[in-house]
């Protein structure tokens, strides 16, 4: 399977990497990651060029990796610095490395041409550093599903009425049309459900008792980052669509890391404008998200299993698929563009 490579992907939360060798797989590539003595995250190909043993099976000697087979040692720039019993060091023993950047307790890795890696292109939101917002890092969901299917799910407000009837959706939204904006760099799908009972999530937090106006805005950033802006407010307030900040507003962030053609890691977190500093509220929200995301996992893995079985059949599209169709088309365009660039280089 081909992937978009000239992009920043999440290698993991900052807490996932320390002074031990960690084997990770991203875009079907095996990578070894660790931190140097000054805390810098390092990523390089997880393969010793000598006999191809994964370097993650070796050990750290200071800031260097020693291969576990014959002791050949590489510094954190991938340069071979020692061959036991041999003074001459061949340059062909050097190991490719990957650009890495860390911010907001997230470790990002660039999987494409090193010369094109610009940290200014890394996903960010002003709410990460604004006062009045609580940032809560969640967990990692390991999905036996192609990342394209997972991303489609994250630009699809229509599914919540049926997949999440007790958590993020209800029957009140079943026939509410979904709006789309497929121009520009971000694909957006959204809808409002006016003057209806609160969904299970907002019954629990913050505890709405009367009818509310609620919204879902799904923002899909290529190649695989989704931001879901959802919330509620008492219907009596009659807010406009650009006044969502006046209600209970949450951003659920999903950083999708394609592992292989049928495996994806979804690292999720949330930002909220209420209960700032309240760790009890964070734990409660996380527990509700776990229920909802487990519902998604069940659906997505079943779809992947059926897709693998029916490889020669294409899905039949309906009106709510406008966002996912645009998404797949743009992924194809990005891959073609990268292929053309390599061919002309």
What can you see in these coordinates?
With 345 residues, the protein is α+β, with helices and mostly antiparallel strands. The protein has 5 helices and 17 strands. A 7-stranded antiparallel sheet has the order 11-17-16-15-14-13-12. It has a 4-stranded antiparallel sheet with strand order 5-6-7-8, with no helix packed on it. Strand 2 and strand 3 (29-35) form a beta hairpin. Helix 1 runs antiparallel to helix 5. The model has no long low-confidence stretch (mean pLDDT 95).
The value of Rg in angstroms is: 23 Å
Shape: elongated
Number-wise, the strands total 17
Poorly predicted runs are none
Strand order of the largest sheet: 11-17-16-15-14-13-12
Give me the strand/helix succession.
Answer: EEEEEEEEEEEHHEEHEEEEHH
Percent of residues in helices comes to: 10-25%
User: Could you tell me the mean pLDDT?
Assistant: 95
Question: What's the end-to-end separation, in Å?
Answer: 22 Å
Largest sheet: 7 strands, antiparallel
Q: Which range does the strand content fall in?
A: 25-35%
Structural class: alpha+beta
Count the helices. How many? 5
């Amino acid at each position: 399977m081909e992937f978009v490579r000239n992009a920043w992907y999440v290698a993991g939360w900052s807490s996932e990497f320390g002074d031990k060798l960690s084997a990770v797989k991203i875009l079907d590539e095996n990578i070894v990651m660790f931190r140097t003595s000054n805390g810098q995250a390092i990523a390089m190909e997880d393969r010793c060029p000598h006999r191809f043993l994964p370097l993650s099976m070796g050990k750290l000697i200071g800031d260097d990796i020693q291969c576990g087979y014959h002791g050949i040692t590489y510094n954190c720039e991938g340069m071979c610095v020692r061959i036991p019993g041999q003074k001459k060091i061949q340059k062909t023993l050097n190991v490719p490395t990957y650009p890495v950047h860390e911010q907001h307790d997230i470790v990002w890795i660039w999987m494409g041409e090193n010369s094109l890696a610009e940290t200014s292109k890394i996903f960010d939101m002003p709410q990460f550093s604004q006062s009045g917002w609580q940032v809560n890092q969640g967990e990692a969901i390991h999905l036996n599903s192609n990342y394209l299917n997972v991303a489609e799910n994250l630009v699809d407000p229509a599914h919540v009425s049926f997949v999440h009837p007790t958590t993020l959706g209800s029957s009140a939204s079943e026939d509410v049309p979904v709006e789309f904006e497929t121009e520009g760099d971000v694909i957006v799908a959204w809808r409002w459900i006016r003057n209806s009972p609160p969904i299970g999530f907002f019954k629990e937090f913050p505890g709405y008792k009367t009818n509310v106006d609620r919204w879902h805005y799904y923002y899909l950033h290529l190649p695989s980052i989704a931001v879901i802006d959802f919330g509620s407010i008492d219907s009596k307030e009659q807010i406009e669509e650009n006044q969502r900040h006046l209600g209970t507003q949450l951003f659920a962030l999903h950083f999708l890391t394609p592992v292989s053609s049928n495996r994806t890691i979804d690292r999720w977190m949330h930002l909220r404008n209420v209960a700032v500093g309240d760790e009890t509220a964070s734990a409660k929200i996380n527990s509700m998200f776990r229920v909802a995301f487990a519902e998604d996992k069940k659906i997505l893995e079943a779809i992947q299993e059926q897709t693998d079985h029916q490889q020669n059949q294409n899905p039949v599209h309906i009106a709510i698929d406008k966002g996912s169709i645009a998404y797949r088309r743009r992924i194809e365009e990005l891959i073609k563009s990268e292929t053309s660039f390599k061919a002309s280089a």
